[in-house]
Each structure stands twice: as structure tokens, then as C-alpha cells.
């Protein structure tokens, strides 16, 4: 049994992670963390997450009050909160699964470096299918090399704070690495409109032909399922930096 704390349970993602975790028998939610002042602090996390029932775990505004009760913290929230959670996880030697996006390069480095101290995963996309797509893109970029100009289009809801998406950046990193071309050879385009859950389209523009590889999420449940799989995987491993590829076994 893996004991987790989930941050920001009122958010889209963490609310779904609460729901997905409750449907499994290998995860126990020890509690939640929310920003100070919210009306759901001190309430049951099932109610805060919109489950419509209590699950016997409360939401706190101070992670240090409950961190001892967990194996790891699952956080899909905001950059500011994620960086605070990182410090507490390092101090208390607890695992940290961070799905938040929009970090600066320096914050990214700090998150990845934590893998030397705690079980750590920073994954911009926890969907199984997107991680298969990433693998396919690496193969395509490696094979096409200089023959293709690569451009990425990401479409998200108008509420999304960051652009390009964290996923677009991770897909580009994989393709740059596998093709040997620099990151800045890849162009990014972002649309933020309506309530579209998330789409990523990667174009390989060649002379006289074009290849396109796309993923569309129709809701956010694919990310929540992947986050639960990742939490269980991490709890079974020690200090280290893990990726969704490790979880999926690609
Ligand atoms: N890795 C992955 O697979 C995925 C990652 N994401 C990423 O997860 C993150 C969250 O996305 P999503 O759930 O849609 O976002 P939401 O806006 O729905 O939720 C964000 C939550 O963060 C809380 N929060 C914590 N700290 C702060 C703060 N300092 N200021 C404001 N709000 C704060 C909010 O609390 P309150 O409700 O009380 O205001 C809110 O519940 C994003 O970075 C997104 O890109 C999203 C989908 C998949
Ligand atoms: O809806 C979002 O916000 C999402 N954020 C992640 C990202 O930035 O890539 C993952 C997915 O695209 C959904």
C-alpha cells in the first residue's frame, strides 16, 4: 500500500487524481495540501475534490503537519506551490511526483537534482499514450534527421498559464536528442482557447511531403491514471530520478 499526499485537490488534475486513487486498492490518500485561506482547508479531501463523499483524510495548509504520514507527495498545481513542496520533500526525505508545468530552466534543474536526495519524478505528461508518442517521435526524428523541419502545435484551454506546454518541450527535447539537432531548430506554436483538454501535433515537413503525429486528450483522466501508476512505481523504488518511461517500461 502506497501512502500519498495530494496537493491542490480543488484543481482539475488533483481532483481527478483523488478520484482515480480512491478507485484503486494499492493507494491510500493520507491527506491533502491547499493554499492557506481556502475554504476547504480542514475539510475532507473527498469533499474538496468534488467526489461528493468523505474519504477520511483532511486537507491541510501546512505540509509539515502531515508529511510523516506519506511515502510521497503528488503535485499537479502551480509553480510556486510545487517549489515549496520540493523543499519540504527533500527535508523530510519523502518522494515527490511533480506534474506541474511552467518552470524556469533553473527551477527545472533544481527539481531534477532532487533525484540525488529523494525518489523524484518530474513529468509534464503522465499519459501512457503520450509517452508512447514521445518514443515514436524520437524514432522519426532520428530517421529523418536533416530531411525534415520539425514544428510542434499544442492546443489547450484558455485557462492554461504556460506556453508552449510542458509536453511540447519534453517532446522537443526527445526529438532534439535523437536527431542530434539543437532544440532551437524546432518551432513551437500554441493555441489557448475554449476548454479543449489538450492536443499535441508534431509536423515533420519534408520536400513534397509532410508527416504528422498527433495526440488528443478528450478529458484529463489519462493523466490521473498515469499519475497513480507513477506513484505506485516510485514507492517501490529508492532515491533516484524516474521518468514515465520507467513506469511504462518502454
Ligand atoms: N503532468 C501531466 O500529465 C499534466 C500536468 N498538468 C499541469 O498541472 C498543473 C495544474 O493544472 P490544472 O489542474 O489544470 O490547474 P487548476 O488551475 O485547475 O488547479 C491549480 C490548483 O492549484 C492551486 N494552487 C496552489 N497554489 C496556488 C497558488 N499559489 N496560486 C493559485 N492557485 C494555487 C489552486 O487552488 P484553488 O483551487 O484553491 O485556487 C488550484 O486548485 C498545470 O501546471 C498543468 O500544466 C495538467 C494536466 C496533465
Ligand atoms: O491542460 C494542461 O494544462 C496540460 N498540461 C500539461 C502540459 O503542459 O503539457 C500536460 C497536458 O498537455 C495538459
Automatic annotation (TrEMBL):
<dbReference type="GO" id="GO:0008839">
    <property type="term" value="F:4-hydroxy-tetrahydrodipicolinate reductase"/>
</dbReference>
<protein>
    <recommendedName>
        <fullName>4-hydroxy-tetrahydrodipicolinate reductase</fullName>
        <ecNumber>1.17.1.8</ecNumber>
    </recommendedName>
</protein>
<dbReference type="GO" id="GO:0009089">
    <property type="term" value="P:lysine biosynthetic process via diaminopimelate"/>
</dbReference>
<feature type="domain" description="Dihydrodipicolinate reductase C-terminal">
    <location>
        <begin position="130"/>
        <end position="248"/>
    </location>
</feature>
<dbReference type="GO" id="GO:0019877">
    <property type="term" value="P:diaminopimelate biosynthetic process"/>
</dbReference>
<comment type="pathway">
    <text>Amino-acid biosynthesis; L-lysine biosynthesis via DAP pathway; (S)-tetrahydrodipicolinate from L-aspartate: step 4/4.</text>
</comment>
<keyword id="KW-0560">Oxidoreductase</keyword>
<keyword id="KW-0028">Amino-acid biosynthesis</keyword>
<dbReference type="InterPro" id="IPR022663">
    <property type="entry name" value="DapB_C"/>
</dbReference>
<dbReference type="GO" id="GO:0005829">
    <property type="term" value="C:cytosol"/>
</dbReference>
<dbReference type="Pfam" id="PF05173">
    <property type="entry name" value="DapB_C"/>
</dbReference>
<keyword id="KW-0520">NAD</keyword>
<feature type="domain" description="Dihydrodipicolinate reductase N-terminal">
    <location>
        <begin position="3"/>
        <end position="125"/>
    </location>
</feature>
<keyword id="KW-0457">Lysine biosynthesis</keyword>
<keyword id="KW-0220">Diaminopimelate biosynthesis</keyword>
<dbReference type="InterPro" id="IPR022664">
    <property type="entry name" value="DapB_N_CS"/>
</dbReference>
<dbReference type="InterPro" id="IPR036291">
    <property type="entry name" value="NAD(P)-bd_dom_sf"/>
</dbReference>
<dbReference type="InterPro" id="IPR000846">
    <property type="entry name" value="DapB_N"/>
</dbReference>
<keyword id="KW-0963">Cytoplasm</keyword>
<dbReference type="Pfam" id="PF01113">
    <property type="entry name" value="DapB_N"/>
</dbReference>
<dbReference type="InterPro" id="IPR023940">
    <property type="entry name" value="DHDPR_bac"/>
</dbReference>
<comment type="similarity">
    <text>Belongs to the DapB family.</text>
</comment>
<keyword id="KW-0521">NADP</keyword>
Amino acid at each position: 500500500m502506497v501512502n500519498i499526499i495530494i496537493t491542490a485537490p480543488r484543481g482539475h488534475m488533483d481532483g481527478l487524481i483523488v478520484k482515480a486513487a480512491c478507485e484503486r486498492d494499492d493507494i491510500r490518500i493520507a491527506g491533502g495540501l491547499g493554499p492557506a485561506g481556502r475554504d476547504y482547508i480542514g475539510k475532507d479531501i473527498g469533499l474538496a475534490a468534488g467526489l461528493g463523499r468523505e474519504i477520511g483524510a483532511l486537507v491541510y495548509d501546512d505540509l509539515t503537519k502531515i508529511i510523516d504520514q506519506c511515502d510521497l507527495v503528488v503535485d499537479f498545481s502551480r509553480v510556486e506551490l510545487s517549489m515549496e513542496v520540493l523543499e519540504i520533500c527533500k527535508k523530510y526525505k519523502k518522494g515527490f511526483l511533480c506534474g506541474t508545468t511552467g518552470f524556469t530552466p533553473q527551477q527545472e534543474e533544481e527539481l531534477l537534482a532532487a533525484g540525488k536526495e529523494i525518489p523524484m519524478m518530474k513529468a509534464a505528461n503522465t499519459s501512457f499514450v503520450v509517452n508512447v508518442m514521445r518514443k515514436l517521435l524520437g524514432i522519426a526524428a532520428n530517421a529523418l534527421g536533416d530531411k525534415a523541419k520539425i514544428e510542434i502545435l499544442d492546443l489547450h484551454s484558455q485557462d492554461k498559464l504556460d506556453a508552449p506546454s510542458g509536453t511540447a518541450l519534453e517532446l522537443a527535447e526527445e526529438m532534439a536528442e535523437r536527431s542530434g539537432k539543437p532544440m532551437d531548430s524546432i518551432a513551437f506554436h500554441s493555441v489557448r482557447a475554449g476548454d479543449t483538454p489538450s492536443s499535441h501535433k508534431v509536423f515533420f515537413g519534408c520536400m513534397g511531403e509532410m508527416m504528422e503525429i498527433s495526440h488528443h486528450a478528450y478529458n484529463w483522466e489519462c493523466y490521473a491514471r498515469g499519475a497513480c501508476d507513477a506513484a505506485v512505481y516510485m514507492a517501490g523504488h529508492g532515491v533516484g530520478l524516474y521518468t514515465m518511461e520507467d513506469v511504462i517500461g518502454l
